[in-house]
Write a structure and sequence with these properties.
By secondary structure, the chain is mostly beta strands. The chain has a single domain, classed as Pectate Lyase C-like. 8% of the residues lie in helices and 34% in strands. The protein contains 2 helices and 13 strands; from the N terminus they run E-E-E-E-E-E-E-E-E-E-E-E-E-H-H. Strands 1, 2, 4, 6, 8, 9, 10, 11, 12 and 13 form a 10-stranded parallel beta sheet that branches. The longest helix is centred in the last third of the chain and has 7 residues. The chain is elongated. The mean pLDDT is 95.
């Protein structure tokens, strides 16, 4: 499958299995990619707005210059994916799986990342602002992420647990 230089409005790919795909120079607005399954999908210069990606599997995908705004990406998997210059803004990313993923210059702005899994993830030049990381799995993998001081304080329990600090009353 190949989408190049197009606008996808309210497209429904719910439950679709796509072995390989290239989506580039595209705008995706509305619609659903929920429970879509793919391996080795390439997303280049793509903007997602208001798209539902609940349970989507983008295993070993490559994302470059991609933005997600006001999207539901909860229960999705980016296992072993490569994300370069990706921005998530006001997205629900509950229980997302970044296991083994390589994230470079990725921003999470005002996102919900409750119970996100970071097992064996590598993050470089990444930033989190106003995002909820409570219940994170393997939060020690967030090493090197940049956060404003108020966000660090709000995430203190998760970050303390990552380095083995036991919280007492």
């Amino acid at each position: 499958m190949r989408f190049d230089g197009c606008r996808l409005v309210q497209v429904d790919l719910t439950g679709t299995v796509i072995p390989q795909a290239l989506v580039q120079d595209a705008v995706v607005s509305g619609g659903s990619w929920a429970n879509m399954r793919t391996q080795k999908m390439r997303l280049r210069r793509v903007s997602f707005a208001g798209v539902r990606l609940t349970g989507a599997t983008l295993a070993s995908a490559s994302l470059e210059d991609v933005s997600f705004t006001d999207c539901r990406v909860d229960l999705a998997s980016f296992r072993s994916a490569t994300l370069n210059r990706v921005r998530f803004e006001r997205c629900r990313l509950d229980e997302i799986d970044f296991g083994g993923a390589k994230l470079a210059s990725v921003e999470f702005i005002d996102c919900v990342l409750v119970k996100a899994l970071w097992t064996d993830a590598t993050l470089t030049r990444c930033e989190m602002r106003g995002s909820d990381i409570s219940g994170a799995g393997n939060p020690e993998r967030l090493r090197g992420v940049r956060m404003p001081w108020p966000d660090v304080l709000a995430s203190a329990a998760v970050l303390a647990a990552a380095v083995g600090v036991e919280i007492i009353d």
